[in-house]
Design a protein that fits this description.
Elements lengths: L2 H25 L40 E5 L3 E6 L5 E10 L7 E5 L7 E9 L17 E3 L6 E9 L4 E10 L4 E10 L5 E12 L7 H5 L3 E6 L3 E5 L1 H6 L3 E5 L2 E5 L3 E6 L5 E8 L6 E7 L3 E3 L4 E12 L2 H7 L13 H18 L2 H15 L1 H16 L1 H11 L3 H15 L7 H20 L23 H15 L7 H18 L4 H38 L1
Parallel strand pairs: 1-6
Antiparallel strand pairs: 1-2, 2-3, 3-4, 5-10, 7-8, 8-9, 9-19, 10-17, 10-18, 11-12, 11-14, 13-16, 14-15, 15-19, 16-17
Helix pairs in contact: 1-10, 1-12, 5-6, 5-10, 6-13, 7-10, 7-13, 8-9, 11-12, 11-13
């Protein structure tokens, strides 16, 4: 078995698996199970004594319009509704929709798909509270972080009929994707007032139409606990087995390609995490948490707090917000390889200032690390190539007797001290590295809309003119010409067809990935050519010495 053939088959299998995963995401969804419980099963408060479940607000399906409060900072363009005090819309000013559309990227929206909003509420033990679609008051309809200001506070006020007043404040800091949220409760009712706070994310199951990359990356819920670490909670999981856990120092998020929204409660405070399908639509899902009960005495004040991260999956930023939040940059089972690889790639970028050149330099470094193992593989292929004429003669003599032909081939390998599998292991070892780098390039928001040179103005998108995939296909074809062809004519045709198949696949892959494979193939051709030439020179010298003797 030739090494190149093994590598190509394994790589083709990986590509087909990714395509199958994308197809499953679009067309292979499981049917929605019928639950015996009523839709919109209530979430529980995070009272460790085990209080009875209590209903919290759902606005899925029909989000009633309220009076919008528009907020503009250096990073956000936000809309908060006076009905519920929810964040209904969030546009990220530092991230465009695409290279062709300079409009700010919309993360949260209450119109269109996917529906995605951040909600907050209070549930009182007795009496009214800003729970189900409360109407908040505001002094201004628009707020803007002025030049030179570092903080912007947006207050909303709810006044209960019983003398309880709730002031909800959204606090924006310059340069931060974290929105600090606090609810200050003033109890003028004349009696103790007990309540808990819930914060939740409401999202539709539909993903954005972002092509292959967004279909193969994860879209859904995620939670973190110090005990079980990062855990995905898919929409199917929410349908079949809703979350109902008490967690300290955790967080809950809705994750998508490149961006996320996450609620992060105060550290050390127990929260009851919950999830469910929304009552009004089986395609809307809720993931959130509720705080412990808090009792506020007459004439006293109390405060509930949480933080909301809305922004890109920037690993450095995420790690500074909460432990484990950087794990939402999902490299899967290859995280142990991908994360150090991303660190090296980021460092190279900090030096050269261009992600395309950073990918090229990283590819060279990886090639250097695997130079010796690759050398063993290419030596084996070079020796196999030298045996090609004799292998063809055996095929012609014993082509009708495959058992005899295989035996003669093994005897030939033994006489010439050639192991046909000798170079396979180094290539197999490299495959996890290739796949790990694939996920680094696919998941890193830093490469989103990152230009390289000439016509390549977005390394996260396919080459618009298909030039790079065609060059990659030509490098595969050139690499094949340096390798020994299989003896079997059917396998020969398959090998010749491989570059065409891979070129077709890579037409739709992000340009950064194609750049890596093109550079890697080019370096492999150079290394293989040098090794083959060295072996041929060595054998020529040996023949000349024998003639002299």
């Amino acid at each position: 078995m030739e090494n190149q053939r093994l590598f190509l088959f394994l790589a083709l299998g990986a590509v087909l698996f990714l395509l199958w995963s994308a197809w499953q995401e679009d067309y292979g969804k499981r049917p929605i199970p019928q639950s015996s419980e009523p839709t919109g099963a209530p979430a529980q408060s995070a009272d460790v004594a085990g209080k009875a479940p209590t209903e919290v607000r759902e606005q899925a399906g029909v989000l009633e319009p309220g009076k919008p409060i528009r907020v503009v900072t250096d990073l956000f363009k936000i809309e908060i509704s006076t009905l519920g005090g929810d964040i209904r819309s969030a546009k990220l000013l530092e991230h465009d929709v695409s290279t062709d559309n300079p409009a700010p990227y919309t993360l949260l929206r209450d119109q269109g798909k996917p529906l995605f909003v951040a909600q907050v509420g209070l549930k009182a033990k007795n009496g009214p509270a800003p729970n189900t679609r409360p109407e908040f008051e505001t002094k201004k309809n628009a707020y803007r972080l002025a030049a030179g200001e570092q903080k912007l506070v947006v207050p909303l006020t709810w006044r209960g009929p019983n003398g309880v007043t709730v002031t909800r404040r959204y606090i924006f800091n310059r340069g931060e994707y974290v929105i600090h949220m606090e609810q200050e409760v003033r109890n003028n009712s004349g009696a103790p007032w007990s309540a808990y706070q819930y914060v939740q994310l409401l999202r539709g199951a539909s993903a954005e139409n972002g092509g292959f990359a967004q279909r193969v990356t994860y879209t859904g819920g995620a939670i973190f606990s110090p005990e079980e670490k990062f855990q995905k909670i898919s929409f199917d999981d929410m349908r079949e087995q809703p979350v109902n856990r008490v967690i300290k120092s955790g967080w809950a998020a809705m994750v998508q390609h490149y961006f996320l929204a996450a609620w992060v409660p105060p550290s050390g405070e127990p929260q009851r995490f919950y999830s469910r399908v929304a009552a009004t639509s089986p395609e809307y899902f809720i993931l959130g948490m509720s705080s412990p009960w808090q009792t506020i005495q007459p004439g006293q004040s109390g405060k509930f707090q949480s933080r909301l991260y809305l922004g890109p999956k920037d690993q450095e930023r995420l790690a500074s917000v909460a432990p484990g939040l950087e794990l939402t940059v999902d490299y899967g089972i290859f995280t142990v390889i991908s994360r150090p690889m991303f660190i090296v790639l980021s460092w190279i970028h900090s030096v050269v200032g261009n992600w395309g050149w950073a990918i090229i330099i990283l590819t060279v470094l990886i090639k250097l690390v695997f130079y010796k193992p690759s050398e063993a593989s290419y030596r084996s292929m070079a020796r196999m190539r030298k045996l090609q004429p004799r292998m063809q003669q055996l095929k012609e003599r014993f082509g009708d007797d495959r058992q005899r032909m295989n035996q003669e081939l093994m005897d030939l390998y033994k006489r010439e001290k050639v192991n046909p599998l000798g170079g396979c292991l180094p290539i197999v070892i490299q495959i996890p590295v290739f796949i790990a780098l694939y996920w680094v390039l696919l998941e890193s928001v830093e490469l989103r809309q990152a230009p390289f040179m000439l016509w390549l103005n977005d390394l996260s998108a396919p080459d618009p003119y298909y030039v790079l995939p065609i060059i990659m296909g030509l490098t595969m074809l050139a690499q094949q010409r340096l390798n020994p062809l299989p003896v079997d004519p059917i396998q020969q045709k398959i090998m010749l067809f491989m570059p065409i198949v891979f070129t077709g696949f890579f037409l739709f892959f992000p340009a950064g990935l194609v750049l890596y494979y093109t550079v890697n193939n080019t370096l492999s051709i150079l290394q293989q050519w040098l090794i083959t030439r060295r072996i041929e020179k060595s054998e020529t010298k040996q023949i000349d010495v024998k003639k002299v003797v």
